[in-house]
Amino acid sequence: MKKNINFFILFLTFSISVFSQNLNEKKVLIMWGGWEGHKPELFVKYVSAWLEKKDIEYVISNDLEDYANFKFLSEFDLIVQSVTMSELSKTQEAGLLKAINSGIGIAGAHGGIADSFRKQTNYQFMIGGQWVEHPGKITKFTVNFLDDELTQGLEDFEIETEQYYMHYDPNIEIIATSKFNGKPFSPNNTDFILDPTWIDDIVMPVAWKKRYGLGRVFNMSIGHDPDEFMKHPDAWILLTRGFIWAMR
Ligand SMILES: [Zn+2]
Questions:
Q1: pLDDT (tens digit, 9 = 90+) per residue, 172-218?
Q2: Which of 61, 135, 193, 248 is the most exposed place for a label (fewest CB within 10 A)?
Q3: Is residue 101 part of a domain?
Q4: Cα of 163 to ligand 1 centre, how many Å?
């Protein structure tokens, strides 16, 4: 009998784990757009292929006006966003924030989520941070995973891409980091050379989780080229675990 109870507890623990949700009952909105340099359509291709494999229903949109429609957004459990820069109208921002506050998750990578809508500070308040610089542009660095349910079994890896320097909210839960080297670089492609010795050894979040009302937010800062996720499987595993974690 005791053995049965133990087994039941184990089963219950497993059932409520984030990785064992009934994914085929979930519905995801993939929103793409903004700066083409981040290849949002390629990102959408990878995400939609993964959703299909997981038997998760999804809708693809590149019309930000959908964000103004709270009733439409309410059909979804998660928004995966890849919209770099661009801009939200007041009603679009309000609709999106209301949706996340009501329990719909939002997740994404790189500029598609953490360098979107630079003028919309309430959006940034919801995400928990904003890109401000990638010193030296494409550079080599190590992604370090911190202890978390989403990073179980993943191994630190070296990557060559943009290393995002973020302004972030102390309220985020950091689950992966990288360290800056403070080498001189030229900000914004000018002939001015900056020697940012003060960022030498600065540890910066690469992935985080946070809450916004009833909604969950998952952000990962690598992914300048969506192919990075194919070259670094542990990065893709973390991103897709983030999708599942953030689902309502
Ligand atoms: Zn980029």
A1: 999 999 999 999 999 977 789 999 999 999 999 999 999 999 999 99
A2: 193
A3: yes
A4: 9
